[in-house]
Specification:
Blueprint: H1 8-28, H2 35-42, H3 46-52, H4 56-79, H5 85-102, H6 114-124, H7 131-148, H8 152-169
Helix pairs in contact: 1-2, 1-4, 2-3, 4-5, 5-8, 6-7, 7-8
Amino acid sequence: MRRTPLQRRSAERVDRMLDAAAALLDEGGYDALSTRTVAIRTGMPIGSIYRFFSDKRSLAAALTRRNLEQFMARLEPKLAGASGWDPVIDTVVDEYLDMKATVPGFAVLDFGDNAEVAGALAELLGLREGARAMLVAVEAADALLRAHHDEPELVEETKLLLRSYLGGRLPPPVGDR
């Protein structure tokens, strides 16, 4: 983003811009997204869009950041008190799939950089070591779930793979982090 909104009204305008960008992604994919179409969709002057976003890539980047923040906010209360990899993996995968099905634009642009996702998950789980293992797990899950999110058997196989891999590489997360 070119600038961070400081006032509530500006933050609300940026949220409207990102909501419009997400809707455009759902309707026509990445090619449908542009600063011009966001301006038209929101009824804002194009200059208002450019005040915060230099181009469609910066809009997309802001949307992926918002998606990651929303994902972590949804996970935090659900993982409070969870111990061991089984409930953690079930929760993380199920929440990802729920967002894919319900959050506008998420099916086209989820989080962006998997390293950021891995780091955020490691921090949420209180893992001090194992950044590489978490990144491998996120990369594997991303590849499998991106292609097979609507196949319950492969979703379960993905969870099994993650349990086996993370269980063999990292200590189990302990509740009440």
